[in-house]
Design brief:
The structure is a homodimer.
Chain A lengths: L2 H7 L14 H12 L10 E5 L3 H10 L4 H5 L2 E8 L1 H9 L9 H24 L3 E5 L6 H7 L6 E10 L13 H4 E3 L7 H19 L8 H9 L7 H7 L6
Antiparallel strand pairs in A: 1-2, 2-4, 3-4
Helix pairs in contact in A: 2-6, 3-7
């Protein structure tokens, strides 16, 4: 295993950061590394909003359900799926853009995630810690307003970055044979594999919380999925010009 | 700049591979590195299908619009957004899963992209070349059938891996100030920046093709976006149980 793979395998989310800031040159280095990721059909559909304004940070932390590290992290980036610049390209060439396709939503969303993961890895390679903030989608309309996002742009997730002030364990992942299949989908046997994994996850939480939390993976997932999942999302995205057809 | 960031910045798609195969241990090492990526709410919503069967490979190459390297690459992986295993978790706990939310589609799709990008970087760190195959979505119904994908699973993209038998240049990316904004979205000035970038891209294609192709970025984008984008996508995804509300 080489150093890069060791780095990838050592990822854990960091939610407590030292006060030390990041220089703008570092942030730009990270974003350039993000741009180097593959992009679907060369669309380059990701725009990053670096939020420095403390008041905006505080409001975004609220939007994310009160995650204080959104306000406290050395840097906070919001990755936006952006088809507006493609509309600009069409205008430059007097062409009428066909927008609102689900396919475009997939490519723009995937572009952001590939981009962001490069930023995350580059950051971790510099000794920084990161945590993705999907919680921004709790109040996605308010986030879009705060960041002045126009039509054809939506915030996929945020990313906190900073020097770690904690050293959590790596969280155990599903057994390999649950996530890797050969030649076709076949989940026979996965039930038993998930039961074995449940024991690992229960043990992980027990150790980490000194016995205060003992929850298996399947319990956690089923507890989450009996509830509605951000039911405002489709209407919001359609208002922004996505997922209309 | 450290070695990891250099590796990220040196990415280019590889579409011509040497015959040398990859051992199963290597593929498993790459997939484990993929699993180590962040996952939204611990959902772990990515399943990888490793396609070894030569007939299936050939048919997938056809689905992708005749991309021969899908058949020829040392390995071909299909990254599937998978909420079926969460249904299994709900069944284990006699809970009724609320599915079909757009939010779940976003998290599962993003999970796959984060996972895949870790696989891609791990592969490149081992001297392998990669290319993402979004073209699978041309004939996504056929791909789902070939790979026996059940409800609540969809193929986001494929990934070819192998030892590079070509050495293409890194493709120039948009200027940093087009993709990185501070505190809010503001694209004033982007038109001029894109015009300058257009010259870079035209030069890149001219050099790469010995003068046979001279196309700017904005021309390429506008030429693509005047057409419908895989208009079958929404109906397919809804049939699979996604994007219903």
């Amino acid at each position: 295993m080489n150093e890069t793979i060791e780095l990838l395998n050592s990822h854990r989310s960091i939610r407590k950061f030292k006060g030390e800031r990041l220089g703008q040159a570092t942030i730009e280095e990270l974003v350039r590394a993000g741009q180097a990721a593959a992009t679907s059909s060369f669309l380059q559909a990701c725009t990053v909003i670096q939020v420095e304004d403390p008041d905006k940070r505080a409001q975004l932390a609220e939007c994310a359900g009160g995650q204080a590290y959104v306000a406290d992290a050395a840097a906070f980036l919001v990755f936006c799926a952006d088809m507006k610049r493609h509309q600009l390209c069409c205008e430059m060439h007097h062409a009428e853009m066909q927008s609102g396709f689900t396919e475009q939503f997939i490519t723009a969303t995937a572009d952001c995630a590939l981009f962001a993961q490069n930023v995350a890895i580059a950051a971790e390679s510099l000794g920084l810690g990161i945590v993705y903030i999907g919680g921004l989608r709790n109040r996605i309309d308010r986030v879009a307003e705060l960041l002045k996002l126009p039509d054809l742009v939506y915030p996929v997730f945020g990313l906190c970055l900073g020097y770690p002030d904690q050293d959590p364990e790596v969280k155990p992942r599903l057994p390999l044979d649950v996530v890797l299949k050969k030649d076709g989908y076949d989940d026979s046997g996965d039930l038993e594999r998930i039961r074995a994994y449940d024991d690992n996850v229960r043990e992980y939480y027990r150790t980490r919380t000194g016995g205060n939390k003992e929850m298996s993976w399947s319990e956690q997932i089923s507890g989450m999925l009996i509830k509605e999942a951000r039911p405002h999302m489709l209407a919001f995205l359609q208002r922004q010009g996505f997922l209309k057809r």
